[in-house]
Structure formats: structure tokens, C-alpha cells
Write a structure and sequence with these properties.
Order of helices and strands: EEHHHHHHH
Number of helices: 7
Oligomer: single chain
Strand order of the largest sheet: 1-2
Structural class: mainly alpha
Strand content: under 5%
Largest sheet: 2 strands, antiparallel
Helix content: 40-55%
Shape: extended
Length: 145
Amino acid sequence: MTDNLRLEGEGGAPFTIIDLPATNIARARDHGIPGYLQFRKVCGLSVATRFDQLQGIPLVQQKVLGNVYADVRDIDLFVGLLSELPQPRSRMGPTLTCLITRQFNASRHGDRFWYEREHQFGFSLPQLDSIRKVSLSKEIGRAHV
């Protein structure tokens, strides 16, 4: 994971400028972010009481987690998210999918300038239909033409 965070020092010798996973784990602990299982609970997903009950995490990884953490409740969020198998047609596991979905929904509903809010901009239905046809991938594709 740190392969893309390398620079060349004097004489062309590579050196790592940061250990991103360790930094993410430390930041979460510094800020009091709850552990992985607390977020699974928030998302309505199963919560394990033992390492062998961790759903969506391969058995080999469950054993590694059991060797690293004294208690299943101690698993750091970042570590748990990286341990999950991706959902079908996705690169993310169920917990990260839930958290990102919740954040996007909160951002949209909390944004007073969101174009779909009633009485905000007064877009007509045909205008809203036209706006809804636009996607980020289409816009990025146009930028590369």
C-alpha cells in the first residue's frame, strides 16, 4: 500500500515518506473513532463476539486479526474495512459501502443548494430530467476528448 508513496533520495535510493495505513490507524485512535464493530452495528450489519464470527472476512484474515488484537472489539476501523471481501460488482465491502452511502445521503440532504430540493431553484420536471441524465463519468469522458 505504501509503494506509491516513495521518493528517491540522494543517489537514487528510494525512501518511504509515510506509512499510510499506520497513519490512518493512529489518526482514528487520536480522534477517538470507534472500532470496526461499532460501525458495523450502526450499519445494521452482524456484530461478532469472536474472531471466527467475522462475516465477510476470509478465515486466514480472521486468524491474523486474532493474533494482532486481544479482543474482536479492538479491531480498528481502517483494518476492518480493508479486511472485508468486496461485495458483488464492487471494490468495497459492506461496511465501507454503508458508510460512504450514509455520508453521501447526509451531504445531499444537508446541502441547502442541492438542485432537487423543493422550492429552491424552481427547475421544471424536464429540466430536472435533463440534469439527472448527466453523470460524472460522462463529464470526465468529455474532458478527455
